[in-house]
Amino acid sequence: MVELLASDRASLIAQIEQLRNEVSNLRARAERAEALADHDVLTPTLNRRGFLDNLTRVMAYCRRHKLDAALLYLDLDDFKKINDCHGHPAGDAALIAVANLLLAGVRESDAVGRMGGDEFCVLLIDANMEAARHKADELAKRLDEGGFIWGDRRYSLSGSIGLKPLSDQPDPETWVAEADAAMWLRKGADLAAR
């Protein structure tokens, strides 16, 4: 057996320590990449993929334990005007404000996801239709009252919210599509009332 010189041994220990650090850094990068795969790049919400994954688990859990759940689908009104009049950075500020408002308005056990563009979903766990309607009204009111700040000015926001309880939907995509359809019905009614 070859005996290691003290200098060789110290070099080997240094290389092992360097490899441990590299593995630790790679693990941290992999964890960050995994988190980014499920989270929206702009807002502090889940992205569509992450939200649908969460929805799959919650649907199974609620059905197994016979819990109510409801899905809210929010589409901002006149969002294109914000981008057209003030630029995309202002639109980004509006989306971040909406995401923060939604997150602040729900329980930690609920979920908020940005489905794309100016559309968000809110999953309310252990919430019957009455509680879901109340939460939708509360969030709409907070949206109307909150708005967002861009530059030195506060801008108002509004949106239409569709609501769909968990029933016999076969998959998360169907549930989201049903909530989206309910939102379009609501948006049509809101436009007709103006």
Structure summary:
This protein has 194 residues and is of the alpha+beta class. Helices cover 60% and strands 18% of the residues. Strands 2-3-1-6 form a four-stranded antiparallel sheet, sandwiched between helices. A two-stranded antiparallel ribbon has the order 4-5.
DSSP strand (E) fraction?
Answer: 15-25%
What integer is the average pLDDT? 90
N-to-C SSE string, H for helix and E for strand: HHEHHEEHEEEH
Through-space gap between termini: 90 Å
Number of strands: 6
Low-confidence stretches: none
Strand order in the largest sheet: 2-3-1-6
Outline type: flat
Describe the structure.
The chain is of the alpha+beta class. It is 60% helix and 18% strand. The chain is built from six helices and six strands, in the order ααβααββαβββα. It has helices at residues 6-38, 48-65, 79-86, 88-104, 129-146, 172-193, and strands at residues 69-76, 111-116, 119-125, 148-150, 153-155, 159-165. β4 and β5 (153-155) form a beta hairpin. α3 crosses α4 and α4 crosses α5 (129-146). The mean pLDDT is 90.
Give the SSE layout.
Blueprint: H1 6-38, H2 48-65, E1 69-76, H3 79-86, H4 88-104, E2 111-116, E3 119-125, H5 129-146, E4 148-150, E5 153-155, E6 159-165, H6 172-193
Antiparallel strand pairs: 1-3, 1-6, 2-3, 4-5
Q: Features of this protein?
A:
4-stranded antiparallel sheet; alpha+beta
